[in-house]
Design brief:
The chain has 78 residues and is an all-alpha fold. It contains 4 helices and no strands. Helix 1 crosses helix 2.
Length: 78
């Protein structure tokens, strides 16, 4: 089901740039904003807990205490 969004207090300069961009692409402002949102959502990676765990293990960490030790050592070195 579609959802309605509202963005308040958009500075005039940004609103005008968006209007010009919409005109360049032969779209309404609403159509341009929807396209921008679609493009941003398509680029945004969605990570699962398993993805994050894989990344952490790739960096050589296997337990939370190891991560805490590394962070503590880094903090103490400054």
């Amino acid at each position: 089901m579609p959802v309605n969004f509202s963005v308040k207090n958009v500075p005039d300069e940004i609103a005008e740039k968006l209007r010009m961009r919409a005109k360049r692409h032969h779209r309404s402002l609403q159509g341009e904003l929807l396209t921008i949102l679609e493009e941003a959502a398509a680029r945004a990676p969605i990570k699962t807990a398993a993805d994050v765990l894989r990344e952490v293990r790739k960096d050589g960490l296997s337990t939370p205490s190891e991560a805490a030790d590394i962070i503590g050592a880094d903090r103490d070195s400054h």
